[in-house]
Write a structure and sequence with these properties.
about 90 residues, mainly alpha
Length: about 90
Amino acid sequence: MEHINDRIRDRAHALWEAEGRPHGRHQEHWIQAVAEIATEGDAEREADAKARSGPPKHDVASALSPNFPVEAAPEDTSKTSRKKAPA
């Protein structure tokens, strides 16, 4: 908890300095800093949740759907000649 308060205090101080060090605005800067730090925390939690969930999973039914994203097979770009197999 102390770590968060340090971050809020540092951010509030930066806001105060960025505004030219005005007198009597400490509460506004603190509230803005709290909001910014909370938003950062929300974004971090979303990113963590997304990373833990892994890539999207598709079931068999969706794979059979005409809208299922399918990559085309790569073209054969080799320049080797191919011999026909004897018939």
